[in-house]
Amino acid sequence: MCGIVGILGNEAVAGPLVEALRRLEYRGYDSAGIATVENGSLDRRRAEGKLVKLENCLSEAPLVGHTGIGHTRWATHGAPNEINAHPHVSGDVSVVHNGIIENFRELREDLEKSGMEFSTQTDTEVIAHLIARTLKGGATPEEAVEQSLSKLEGAFALAIIFAGHDDLMIAARKGSPLAIGYGDGEMYVGSDAIALAPFTDTITYLDDGDWAVLKRDGAVIRDRAGRQVERAKVKSVASALMVDKGNHRHFMAKEIHEQPEVLSHTLAHYLDFSEGRVDRSRFDLDLGAIERITISACGTAYYAGLVGKYWLERWARIPVEIDIASEMRYREAPMEKGGMALFVSQSGETADTLATLRYCKEEGQHIASIVNVRESSIARESASVLPTLAGPEIGVASTKAFTCQLAVIACLAIAIGRARGHISEETENELVMALAKVPGHISTILRDESIFEKISHDLSHARDVLYLGRGVSYPIALEGALKLKEISYIHAEGYAAGELKHGPIALIDEDVPIIVVAPDDDLFEKTLSNIQEVVARGGRVTVLTDHDPDRIGADAENIISLPTVHPFATPLVYAVPVQLLAYHTAVFMGTDVDQPRNLAKSVTVE
Ligand code: G6P
């Protein structure tokens, strides 16, 4: 999703702006640009495609201004080309924007009537024109921005600079995230603290509706009502975070391999291994008082929630409803008081998830979230925050964040089950020990990837791939299919194995590889019957299992034998083979594994 940076510096800012944009690349983008104030006037460079193209433009025609803004654009309105790339300029105003201006058509008509000429198809250009028109009418930059903001509907994070004003930048946020960074006689603006980490670790997160006037010596922040407000300065840990690939070819590979370690950290946060117990104090929740749970999330995080539904219902005996956030936010579902609404999000900034959170808050639910970015909007708006300790995830396709989300939900299910009296001390001990073994099982799988490479080579020639699973393995089948299509662009679908005969079985022939997630749990025999139904129709099956391979026999083309796992913990372990299949297939296909086309890491628009 679009990334924003801004610097009021003491030297040329073009280089540092590009450096900050590079740290926002993980969000996904298709063009980039920067603008600076140079000898009182605005100048900009923009390029379609990756940052290296922008750097080439800058080396041919450098920008030397000490005040500047930069942007990576993930196209919403208008094609991803140079003309539509930000920053946008109108008269003395240049602006970068993340979000969507919903009333841009009305605003555009009005601006065109007053003679403003549009050169792009973007919604953002209306912001530049609105401010420029108000400036021409005699307003100061601050007045022009304040008046213009009041006309904008939708979501935005903005950074704005002005010709003739070398010591001024205005930032604003509504919906989309934005942080201000404090340097030594320099000031910064960024979509997140990771972008600003090379320059400062002193950060203020703007609240929704805030806007700020920045000069080199500090910032004056106002809330949506125009009142001057103080917002806390926090020390960000982002600067300490390593954002490199280590010895791996891609961030995704690095993040897959980090799973044993980050899962150990996450599990150790919630579990007392020596006692074989869940550390209930970690949950900041009245565990025994929760009567029902509504889970909402998007993408991979939604699949983590779906596994959570199985776990919470079966082990904690608590009713769980789940919906994808983009649906739930508009469904107007009535919610009984006394419920907990649980949101799962790596970034903590996903617009649909945040909107659903606010809806559930209005419906009187206790708001809890499982997030990887503790300073994020979703975390800040939650009454209870359950962190995943996955570290920054840079690959757009989520891997380690997903398994850490699963780890937290598994611990929560045990904690609630125990508090409600449905899990005995002995069972708690058994389940905790099952989770404790997960990092070791994953290390074993990661020791030798040759079988995954071999099967992926085959998958890379397929046009369609089916993933099947039952019970807790059904969401893993969905996640496997999502991973594959995200990064290899091969069409893939996940199905509940029992649903096969109600439609998908019609797709089966020797050209459609089928991946079956079949741990040796109480549903294994049922899944085995489905495998036989597929094989009987000429289907080519790869089975992921810890069951005796002889029992599956010659029915399957490939059997990937996995370590023996307690049935409770299988989703955490089986997530890894489906990640590896997607990863190696994408490598064979030669796609952009870490930044797949059209996708964004942090989806801050609807
Ligand atoms: C995007 C990402 C996915 C992610 C989803 C939800 O689509 O590409 O990997 O699962 O957003 O993001 P969140 O940050 O809320 O987990």
Identify the CATH architecture of the largest domain. Answer: 4-Layer Sandwich
The backbone outline, from C-alpha atoms, is globular
Q: How big a fraction of the residues is strand?
A: 15-25%
Which regions contain 5 or more consecutive residues with pLDDT less than 50? none
The fourth-level CATH homologous superfamily of the largest domain is: Aminohydrolase, N-terminal nucleophile (Ntn) domain
Read across the widest sheet, the strand sequence of neighbours is 3-2-4-1-10-9-11-15
> What is the residue-mean pLDDT, rounded to a whole number?
92
CATH topology name of the largest domain, in short, is Glutamine Phosphoribosylpyrophosphate, subunit 1, domain 1
Number of β-strand runs: 27
Structural account:
There is one protein chain. This protein is of the alpha/beta class. It folds into 3 domains: 241 residues, Glutamine Phosphoribosylpyrophosphate, subunit 1, domain 1 (4-Layer Sandwich); 191 residues, Rossmann fold (3-Layer(aba) Sandwich); 157 residues, Rossmann fold. It binds 6-O-phosphono-alpha-D-glucopyranose. The site of 6-O-phosphono-alpha-D-glucopyranose (G6P) has 16 residues, from helix 9.
